[in-house]
Write a structure and sequence with these properties.
Elements: H1 12-15, H2 31-57, E1 63-66, E2 70-71, H3 84-97, E3 103-109, E4 112-117, H4 119-132, E5 139-144, H5 150-164, H6 169-181, H7 188-195, H8 201-217, H9 229-241, H10 245-256, H11 261-272, E6 283-287, E7 292-297, E8 302-306, H12 311-325
Parallel strand pairs: 2-4, 3-5
Antiparallel strand pairs: 1-5, 3-4, 6-7, 7-8
């Protein structure tokens, strides 16, 4: 009888499920999924870039502009006075805390910008950069403005300064005159209407009265921004009634060697009252050796000023004068 082959029992490990094999590479995405994802990211970046550019151009984003790229003479400035104490306070503030208020500029192309407002801030930054050499003082924080033309730029400058510090009547009239002279406006009437469109008719009338002062006395006055409303209107009336008065007052102002606003206003007051200002002596200084200055007057007088003259030299000088005049 044939023997049957005995079979050994099945081993459990042979019946276990095969181990999972993981690929080192991620499962490939469907092509359309990758394309859609990339397109979405590109669109988001493009939209963000457009929003940033729009914010920059519309003046809603502060940018850094090198001072050397800013044209400070783009507009004739409306503010005339530059108080030394105020300027020093502004410079010290920027030194301690940095520039807190952005300037306003308009793009001129080729990397250049025209200044609309912020002239004093630019001056303070330039002074700090010259003094310290620090790179952070060589750039100004700025907002881009988009005036449609130069008249709009002048209006923006005037409005900004009227809100911040206010302008004197003389300064208002002067910017109107200078804008007309520069061809920005066709005449003074148009300049007043556009530059001071929000002012009352009475206020524009007063500014118009100051136009004659600017035309006749701008080169002779040293402290015109200090002329108050009442004095300015009186003077404007005088110049209108007597056309030759502007030349007469200008001559007095030039001869008077004015050194302060009070002196200038005192002279103007005297002129309005019909008084003639006493002429100050005319002279020229000639520096000599040893710190001595010879002051030569037109009437022939000579004064020696400065360091003390040694007694020996004084005696020699007097002896020489005695011989020469004898």
């Amino acid at each position: 009888m044939a023997k049957r082959k005995r079979l050994s029992p099945a081993k459990p490990e042979f019946l276990a499920a095969a181990p999972e094999v993981k690929s080192a590479l991620p499962a490939p995405r469907a092509p359309i999924t990758g394309v859609a994802s990339d397109a979405s990211a590109t669109a988001a970046l493009s939209e963000m870039a457009m929003m940033m550019e729009d914010a920059r151009k519309q003046g809603r984003m502060v940018i850094e502009v090198p001072l050397e790229q800013i044209d400070l003479t783009y507009l004739t400035r409306d503010r005339m006075g530059l108080d030394a104490d105020d300027m020093q306070a502004l410079t010290d503030s920027i030194r301690r805390r940095g520039q807190q208020t952005p300037i306003e500029v308009t793009e001129l192309g080729a990397g250049k910008y025209g200044l609309i407002s912020g002239w004093r801030r630019c001056q303070a930054l330039q002074h700090l950069h010259d003094d310290t050499g620090l790179a952070r003082h060589a750039v100004a924080l700025a907002l881009i403005r988009l005036p449609q033309d130069r008249p709009a730029a002048y209006v923006a400058m005037v409005e900004e300064n009227e809100i911040r510090i206010g302008l004197s009547y003389y300064e208002r009239a002067r910017i109107a005159v200078k804008a007309v002279d520069a061809g920005v406006f066709k005449d003074e009437k148009q300049a007043l209407l556009q530059l001071f469109h929000s002012a009352s008719r009475a206020k524009r009338s007063k500014i118009r009265s100051f136009l004659g002062l600017v035309r006749g006395l701008d080169k002779a006055l040293k402290y015109p921004e200090a002329i108050g409303e009442r004095m300015g209107l009186r003077l404007a009336k005088r110049l209108e009634e007597t056309p030759a008065a502007a030349g007469q007052l200008a001559q007095q102002l030039r001869k008077a060697r004015i050194t302060s606003a009070d002196e200038e206003q005192a002279l103007i007051t005297g002129f309005l009252q019909g008084k003639t200002a006493p002429a100050k002596p005319q002279y020229r200084d000639r520096p000599l050796r040893g710190g001595v200055v010879a002051r030569l007057y037109e009437d022939g007088r000579i004064e020696l000023r400065g360091a003390a003259i040694p007694a020996k030299l004084r005696d020699q000088l007097l002896a020489w004068l005695d011989r020469s005049l004898g």
